[in-house]
Amino acid sequence: MAAVRWATGAGAVVVLVGSGVWAMRPGQVDARLWEEVRPVIEARLAAEQRGTGYGEEVPALDAHWFCRAEPVGLERHGDEVRAGVDTLCVEYAVRDGGLVECGGGRVPQVLRLARAADGRYRVVSREQAPDGAGHADWTESHFGRRTLALRDEISSTPLEDAARTRYGLREDTPVGDC
Questions:
Q1: Phi/psi of residue 36, each to 5°?
Q2: How far apart are CA 82 and CA 86, in angstroms?
Q3: Most buried of 25, 41, 64, 82, CB within 10 angstroms?
Q4: Which residues partner with 86 through β-bridges?
Q5: Does the CA dihedral 114-120-126-129 come out positive or negative?
Q6: Cβ-proximal residues to 128 (8 Å cutoff; 6+ apart), any chain
Q7: Backbone dihedral region of 22: left (phi > 0), alpha (psi from -120 to 50 degrees) or beta?
Q8: Do 30 and 36 form a contact (C-beta atoms < 8 A)?
Q9: How many CA atoms lie within 13 A of 15 on its CB side?
Q10: Which residues contact 131 (CB under 8 A, 6 or more apart)?
Q11: How many angstroms separate the CA atoms of 44 and 37, rounded?
């Protein structure tokens, strides 16, 4: 932990203590880097959801998880990337020819990625906000003032569209409950 001190007017001293949080101005994301790491992040999120949904307990539903990540902060340090993301994962299945949502959740997360020898990124660690008590504190400590970006809604429309495509359903197939 590092501390930085500045003297300010009227003899006041400001002390900033590093907490391991990588700083980045809100709203600034390297779009090209995000294009590289987003598919890796979303694939990892979906893989980690497997086995956690109601729909998977009913094999006839052929349920699958679909995940979407939105960047809150993205920072590269050499061959490593810290990605603060807001995530939405939803489990979809087909029942009676219609698309149904069986479960899901939205969770802020921090992933660290490293560039492999082949040039592609891989996730090396992932942290997420806990449910219930501690959620707000974790989010504030990992995102700081960027928590404002977490208040925006994440649309499930791209996930619904991906599910319809996977199951070969029409674009206008409505979504029901599992």
A1: -75, -45
A2: 13
A3: 41
A4: 70, 108
A5: positive
A6: 87, 107, 108, 109, 110
A7: beta
A8: no
A9: 5
A10: none
A11: 11
